[in-house]
Write a structure and sequence with these properties.
Length: about 160
């Protein structure tokens, strides 16, 4: 494909891995590979920049807007450069009943961020549901799930990351 977006080596890796992904789809249905293609780009670059989304759209033969629509629909995609660690705190009903709002406020104070913001080290987000209703409250850090949280358990977890 060739692009100033990637180094020559990154382009080689991207093309090879995208070819592996596309092998699982009919040739006339490349657009069905949008989620894994965006995931590949994010794994390589850390986030989905506008140039990166255009590159994926071109590879899948769809308008650039389609890549943007998909990327902005799913919470697991980052359309802005995130901090080194991404923290998602569930505040759905079960987690809320077990103290999620207090936990989120505690993390906001601890990290010096409001939910929905980032700095170089942290991205803190409030999320709708992480599917751990029986072990609430829960959160994810860099997509690793943590359940049954207390302030002490949060402190121990974040001390390891600092």
């Amino acid at each position: 494909m060739g692009s100033p977006f990637f180094s020559a080596e990154e382009q080689r890796v991207f093309d090879a891995k995208l070819s592996e992904i596309l092998a699982h789809y009919p040739a006339d249905r490349k657009s069905a590979a949008m989620l894994p293609a965006l995931r590949l780009l994010q794994e390589m670059k850390g986030w989905l920049s506008p140039d990166g989304m255009r590159l994926v759209a071109k590879a899948l033969e769809v308008p650039p807007e389609r890549a943007y629509e998909v990327a902005t629909f799913y919470v697991m995609f980052h359309t802005h450069k995130p901090g080194k660690h991404v923290v998602d705190v569930c505040t759905n009903l079960s987690c809320s009943l077990r103290g999620a709002e207090d936990l989120l406020a505690y993390l906001e104070a601890k990290l010096g961020l409001r939910a929905g913001t980032s700095n170089e080290k942290w991205t803190l987000r409030e999320t709708e549901c992480l599917a751990s209703c029986g072990t609430a409250p829960c959160l994810q850090v860099d997509e690793v799930h943590h359940e049954g949280l207390t302030r002490g358990r949060v402190d121990a977890l974040f001390d390891k990351l600092s």
